[in-house]
Specification:
This protein is mainly beta and 205 residues long. Helix content is 12%, strand content 46%.
C-alpha cells in the first residue's frame, strides 16, 4: 500500500487481513504443509481463521508471531519498535535475532526493542482504530503522532528535538484535512506549523 492507502484482503484459508498505509504482505496462493506463513512490513491487522493442525505464522524483520486462530495487530515499520497488540485469543511472539519471546493475552501489547519484549496492558481496540478510518492516539508522543500523519498524508514533518515527550490522547477521523488535525495539535501543544507543499515545519510558540 502507498502512503495514504489502505487495503483489505482474504487469504486462501479464510484469514482476513487489513494493511495500513506504507505496508506490505507476502503470502502463498494456497497454504500447503504443516504451517501457514506470511511475511509483512508496516502495519497489518489479522483475523486468523482457526486451524489447530496448521499454525499461522507472521514474520517481520526481527520478530515471528505464531497463532492458531486469533485477532491481533502488528506494527513493524522500518526503524521503529515492533508493536503487537492482541484483541482475541493468544499469540506467541519470538525474536529472530535473540532468544527473547513472550506470550500475549487479550488487551496486552508487546513492544520489541533492543532484543527484548516489554509487555503492558492496553485497550487493544485503540490499535485498530485505523481499520475503522480513525486516528486513535492514546499516550503517544508528538514524534510518534507525526510519523502516523506522514504516512497517511504523504508529507514530511520537521520538528525540533526539544519538543516535549509529553503524551497525547486524540481520536480524529482520518478523512479530516491535515490542516484541521494540525490546528488541534497546535492548540494543545502550543506549536506553530508552516506548510510548504509536502513539507511541514514545526516550531514552539
Amino acid at each position: 500500500t502507498p502512503r495514504g492507502g489502505r487495503y483489505q484482503l482474504t487469504l486462501a484459508d479464510g484469514t482476513q487481513v487489513w494493511l495500513n498505509a506504507q505496508s506490505s504482505i507476502t503470502y502463498p496462493s494456497a497454504f500447503r504443509g504443516c504451517t501457514r506463513e506470511v511475511t509483512i512490513s508496516g502495519e497489518v491487522y489479522f483475523e486468523v481463521a482457526h486451524n489447530a493442525a496448521m499454525p499461522f505464522r507472521v514474520k517481520s524483520e526481527n520478530q515471528t508471531i505464531e497463532v492458531l486462530g486469533t485477532h491481533f495487530n502488528v506494527q513493524a515499520y522500518d526503524n521503529e519498535p515492533i508493536e503487537t497488540a492482541l484483541l482475541e485469543g493468544k499469540v506467541l511472539v519470538q525474536a529472530t535475532t535473540s532468544k527473547g519471546s513472550a506470550i500475549l493475552s487479550p488487551n496486552q501489547l508487546a513492544k520489541f526493542t533492543n532484543g527484548k519484549f516489554n509487555l503492558k496492558n492496553v485497550n487493544a481496540q485503540d490499535y485498530i482504530g485505523w481499520t475503522k478510518n480513525l486516528f486513535v492516539f492514546n499516550d503517544l508522543t508528538l514524534g510518534q503522532i507525526f510519523k502516523h500523519l506522514e504516512r497517511w498524508y504523504d508529507v514530511e514533518i520537521d520538528y525540533p528535538a526539544s519538543i516535549s515527550e509529553e503524551l497525547f490522547m486524540m481520536e480524529i477521523p482520518k478523512d479530516r484535512k491535515l490542516s484541521e488535525i494540525l490546528d488541534a495539535i497546535s492548540t494543545v501543544g502550543e506549536l506553530s506549523f508552516k506548510i510548504q507543499g509536502r513539507r511541514i515545519t514545526v516550531t514552539k510558540r
